Amino acid sequence: MKTVVKAVTLLKRFSSQKTEWGLSELARATGIDKVIVYRLLGTLAREEFVSKDPKSRSYRLGPAVMELANAHAGRVEPLAVARPHLNALRKETGETVHFMVRRDLKATITMVLESPHELRVAGRIGDAVPLYCTSSGRCFIAFGDAALRRAALRGPLGPWTRYTITDRAVLEAEIRRVRANGFAIDDRQILEHARGAAAPIFDADGEVLSCIVVIGPTMRVTRAKVRMIAKSVRETARRVSRELGFTAAGFPAQHSNAR
Predict the structure, then answer these.
(1) Cα separation, 247 vs 133, whole angstroms
(2) I need a surface site. Which of 14, 208, 220, 254 has the fewest CB within 10 A?
(3) What are the residues facing 215 on neighbouring strands?
(4) Can you tell me the distance from the alpha carbon of 121 to that of 134, in angstroms, rounded to the nearest whole number?
(5) How far apart are CA 121 and CA 194, in angstroms?
(6) Is the pLDDT of residue 257 over 50?
(7) H or E segment and range at residue 109
(8) CATH numbers and ranges of domains, the chain
(9) Rg of the chain on CA atoms, in Å
């Protein structure tokens, strides 16, 4: 068992920031004896989990790792991965949690975990709202591609409440803030008496799969509290994204998918 743990320790040192390792530096970085590292790398190379460059004599991940990654990506259901994290988020915030997906230019609820409070904001599975006027929608726009941004901002921006952002320039500035912060805040823009926050979930390729939303009544969710909630939502989305294979450094403000 200790040998397996050491082999996994070696594999986990490879990342998008450092794709190649020399034998000696890998031993130093892990604290594993150099002789043991040499033997483990030899075994991993035979099984194609690592490959050795004959010129530089450094090691990189091999095709067997990609095969496992593809098998994982093909079998993982994002909502199944997210569910325990969403339950924990509802317990932490005490407010309703929504799991949202994008369908064309609308954000659609696919799961609802209602707040335990008698006074709460609920929502129903299947409810859909335009991307521009809700926190999850602005996350989809902010981290989507250029074509989606153009389409979402080109159409009519009608008000859902008196607080809905309908000025295109103001909305574009808000989208930039969402991208910089890694979360979006809805301050009574979709429901007059509700505030909420959303953050995006990324897949292994850096594409936005879905969004997590926490929403509650304004009498409990003040402007100060909603920012605290937003950070919790962002951290939850980060954990789910990692489990789905997303590994970009600086998540998500420096997310490289800046098309």
Answers:
(1) 29
(2) 254
(3) 96, 196
(4) 14
(5) 7
(6) no
(7) strand 106-113
(8) 2-64 (1.10.10.10), 77-243 (3.30.450.40)
(9) 22
Question: What is this structure's pTM?
Answer: 0.70
Question: pLDDT (tens digit, 9 = 90+) per residue, 172-209?
Answer: 999 999 999 999 999 999 999 999 999 999 988 889 99
Q: C-alpha dihedral over 127, 257, 183, 215, to 10 degrees?
A: 10
- DSSP 3-state assignment of 224? helix
Distance CA 157, CA 144 (A): 19
Whose CA is closest to 186, among 144, 217, 232, 152?
A: 217
- Alpha carbon distance 230, 196 (integer Å): 8
- Distance, in Å, from the CA atom of 206 to the CA atom of 187, rounded to the nearest integer, reads 28
Per-residue HEC secondary structure of 227-243 comes to HHHHHHHHHHHHHHHHH
* Span 25-69, pLDDT tens digits: 999 999 999 999 999 999 998 888 888 887 788 998 887 776 676
Q: For residue 250, what pLDDT band results from cuts at 50, 70 and 90?
A: very low
DSSP state letters, 81-94: HHHHHHHHHHHHH-
